[in-house]
Design brief:
Elements (H helix, E strand, L loop, with lengths): L1 H8 L2 H25 L1 H32 L6 H12 L1
Helix pairs in contact: 2-3
Length: about 90
């Protein structure tokens, strides 16, 4: 998704250069860590996995909170119908 947004908002040559540079550096760093110490690589992957799970939990928790408070649905149907009439 970020790539899609960046593709439309930045010049093509800049996006390609930025992606190539950062992807190459990231892959090189991970390969270096893996070659030097497999245990460190596995621990690093475990930390990244826990971080991803925490972020997913926060997003799901916020979504449940918004659904329980009812603020999400307040007036959205009327706004959607008005918007649909404007598009036609």
């Amino acid at each position: 998704m970020l790539l899609l947004i960046a593709t439309f908002s930045l010049p093509h040559s800049y996006v390609g250069t930025w992606l190539f540079r950062h992807c190459t550096l990231s892959a090189g760093l991970l390969t270096f860590i893996n070659v030097m110490s497999v245990k460190l690589y596995v621990q690093m992957q475990n930390v990244f996995s826990v971080c991803k799970l925490v972020v997913c939990g926060v997003v799901i928790g916020c979504g449940i909170f918004v659904l329980c408070t009812g603020e999400l649905c307040k007036g959205t149907v009327e706004n959607m119908i008005d918007t649909m009439h404007l598009l036609q």
